[in-house]
Amino acid sequence: MNETINGVNLGNWLVLEKWMNPALFDGTTADDEYYLPTQLDPAVYEARIRTHRAEYITERDFATIRSWGLNSVRIPVPYFIFGDRAPFVDCVDELDKAFNWAEKYGLSVLIDLHTVPMSQNGFDNGGLSGVVKWAQTPSEVEFALTVLERLAQRYGSRKGLYGIEIVNEPLLEAGWNAMNPMERYKAVDPAMAEGSAPIAADWLKDYYITAYHRIRRHMGDDKAIVFHDGFDIAVWKDFMQDKNEYRNVVLDTHQYLMMAEINGCPQTVEGYDAFVQGTYAPMIEEMSAYFPVIVGEWCLFNSLGCGVDTHGGQSVLNGEEGAAAETLTVDEKRALYRGLADSQLKAWSKGAGHYYWNYKLLTDTVNTPGWIGWDCWDLGRCIAQDWYPVNHK
């Protein structure tokens, strides 16, 4: 990898997250992508999804991203991208278009397999809330591997391809204990959720090795194969270190200030900065001795900017009550976010690059009660308010 990654995620485009576009779920009680089609007429569901995809990201967005000085996009894709898992709607045509746009505007693409059947983490962004049984289901593990192979076959020789990420945020025991997904994301069907469990580190290592070989045979060594740390970065120190067998392997870690808060970080400007410089920066520097390290997801979101303790990023959709009015002035908020941007970008510079989460969201954080502080998930809104430095290196 020659160029440091300075990128942004195109989340909520091909993989839905209700909080980022609540209107898409209108007329249903669904909280995730799995249940949305169960509550809509099939024709209505397909029309709603296809309209969303056509409008949410277009060529102009790639031009905008380039104008900000960014050089890469991470695109979350679902396991049903090829249209072989009814009732879900395929989206490979959209990814084809994304590659054409990216290559026109000089952006690279990291394809991220963001969801798998029966879920790898139980999060709403995993497609099925409160269920973590993918790793226990051999047929679905194999299915995920076939999706990765087909992605590698289709895009492996594309000029714009930076790499393929094997699976997003598989949940190891440390992350399971910290985030408590079964409580945070309630399962609609308790019987389906029964037996959910964190993924074992040894199992995940074996899966990553299998996936590496299945993907690598379809694309050259100039393309990266990216694996996520499962929210336990230290367990990967001696992994895939044989350079004759494993080539261009990149470690992805996701570091959010809301996770720092869960781990006891004080909700103050000084507390955040101390945590970023004292924990994140040395961790990335240490792991960079083993792999190129990218921070595949991060943002400026924090409870101080929201004016309330969000308990690790929980929103009004999770039953949390947001602040009724801003607690910081415009200048105070700019100082907070700009300081956190500078602090985190300094830490990420210890590694091989980063992708902001997210490019945009459609939640109206101005007119909808409870969403104060959530606008900083939207990179465009951050740039417009001078919270994030454009054209930085």
Automatic annotation (TrEMBL):
Cellular localization per UniProt: Cell membrane
Top-rank lineage group of the source organism: Bacteria
Keywords tagged on the record: Cell membrane, Cell wall biogenesis/degradation, Glycoprotein, Glycosidase, Hydrolase, Membrane, Signal-anchor, Transmembrane, Transmembrane helix
Pfam families associated with the record: Cellulase
GO CC annotations on file: cell surface; extracellular region; plasma membrane
GO biological process: cell wall organization; glucan catabolic process
Xref: SUPFAM superfamilies: (Trans)glycosidases (SSF51445)
Entry-linked Gene3D superfamilies: Glycosidases (3.20.20.80)
Topological category with respect to the lipid bilayer: Single-pass type II membrane protein
Keyword flag Magnesium: no
A GO term, aspect molecular function: beta-glucosidase activity
Domain Glycoside hydrolase family residue range list: 54-302
Record PANTHER family: GLUCAN 1,3-BETA-GLUCOSIDASE 2, GLUCAN ENDO-1,6-BETA-GLUCOSIDASE B
Function: Glucosidase involved in the degradation of cellulosic biomass. Active on lichenan.
Family as reported in the entry's similarity comment: Belongs to the glycosyl hydrolase 5 (cellulase A) family.
Designated name of the protein: Exo-1,3-beta-glucanase D
